[in-house]
């Protein structure tokens, strides 16, 4: 059984749940590329608010790259898991080297996706953070920590689906969470979409540009 036709459908359903934020001047939508952008676009268009990307890159432990010792995010924000860093005695210069490599990826993708559009300011904004689904929540948690460091006034996560356990964990950490479904057993995000292709870089660029060109988007 599928829950969503595609990411567009998921975004439209979430937009309906978030209608109280429509046309609010202090609200912005931040989407995690690439799959979160089509979902976020539908929300931003329906609410008539600005859309931007928010990039997060995992900092993997040397030799055990699948184990995250932290993450970096748009805005030169660093989030470290001090328990892992200290227990594995990872020196600062190693962290800096890995951070520099991942920061270069963030910079490259920022340039690719945004073109000439400046990042939206986050400080004192109500931020709606969007992805196309959540499994473990590791990337989303890094984004949450980074956005808070950047000084948002309120943070709402909007996701089509998540495992029930992840949803309840996130709910404790957030001002608000809109999650349309918590199917069990969860399996994988794509299982719950009828059509779930990879989102291309070109699509991300086109959606950001389409939102920024709307008459309701004022320079911020």
Structure description:
The radius of gyration is 17 Å and the shape is globular. With 220 residues, it is α/β, with parallel strands linked by helices. It has helices spanning 7-17, 36-47, 82-87, 92-114, 138-149, 164-173, 201-212; strands at 27-31, 51-53, 56-61, 64-73, 77-80, 126-130, 154-161, 176-181. The protein has 7 helices and 8 strands; from the N terminus they run H-E-H-E-E-E-E-H-H-E-H-E-H-E-H. It folds into 2 domains: 7-56 and 119-212, Rossmann fold; 57-113, Ybab, Chain: A (2-Layer Sandwich). Helix 1 packs across helix 2 (36-47). The strands form 2 sheets. It has a 5-stranded parallel beta sheet with strand order 2-1-6-7-8, with helices on both faces. It has a 3-stranded antiparallel beta sheet with strand order 3-4-5, sandwiched between helices.
The mean pLDDT is 93
Structural class: alpha/beta
The fold-level CATH name of the largest domain is Rossmann fold
Strand order of the largest sheet: 2-1-6-7-8
Order of helix and strand elements from N to C terminus: HEHEEEEHHEHEHEH
The count of domains is 2
How many distinct beta strands? 8
What is the correct CATH architecture of the largest domain?
3-Layer(aba) Sandwich
Low-pLDDT runs: none
